[in-house]
Amino acid sequence: MSPRSARLARLSRSVTFSACHRLHSKSLSEEENRKVFGKCNNPNGHGHNYKDFPISLLLPLQIDPVSGMVMNLTDLKEFMQAAIMEPLDHKNLDKDVPFFSEVVSTTENVAVFIWDQLQQLLPPGLLYKVEVQETEQNVVVYKGEEILVK
Q1: Number of domains, the chain
Q2: Which family would the database say this protein is a member of (predicted)?
Q3: Which residues face 129 on adjacent strands?
Q4: Between 45 and which of 22, 31, 52, 85 could a Cys-Cys bridge form, CB atoms 3.0 to 4.6 Å apart?
């Protein structure tokens, strides 16, 4: 295949994990936490089966003319196992995952955690987005953006 006919592709893979958590901010009073987080502030926590679509690879990923792949799916599965399943599946996010000891375990922050974990394992520049579906109605997409606060 000549360079002119090189093709680019985006690769996605999904996993589902189960975890429990309590939405609670140390910066708020008990009353404020109840008001902000409602039933999700239950002291005993609550659980989700997170449907996670964590990887869309882009920037640019050329289909290898020999293997026909942009990335070996076995490698991708292993990266996701280490970055997502091992630290999060069947865990109490607030008690079992050190990241959430100081960060509220919202779906937004779960997406940030997954992004950071995958960034440590994947080749630089490959991760395009992390998408976490907490419920059928709630989905968070994170693309590594940060806003610097002065």
Answers
A1: 1
A2: Belongs to the PTPS family.
A3: 56
A4: 22
46 among known catalytic residues: no
Question: Would you give per-residue pLDDT tens digits along the chain (150 residues)?
Answer: 455 567 888 888 889 999 999 999 999 999 999 999 999 999 999 999 988 766 665 556 788 888 888 888 899 999 999 999 999 999 999 999 999 999 999 999 999 999 999 999 988 888 888 999 988 888 999 999 888 776
| Catalytic residue flag (residue 90) | yes
Q: By residue range, what is the domain housing residue 17?
A: 13-142
The active-site residue, picked from 108, 134, 136, 145, is: 134
Choose the catalytic residue: 46, 78, 90, 145.
90
- Give exposure, 1-28, as e/b (b: 16+ Cβ within 10 Å): eeeeeeeeeebebebebebbbbbbeeee
Which CATH number is 87's domain given?
3.30.479.10
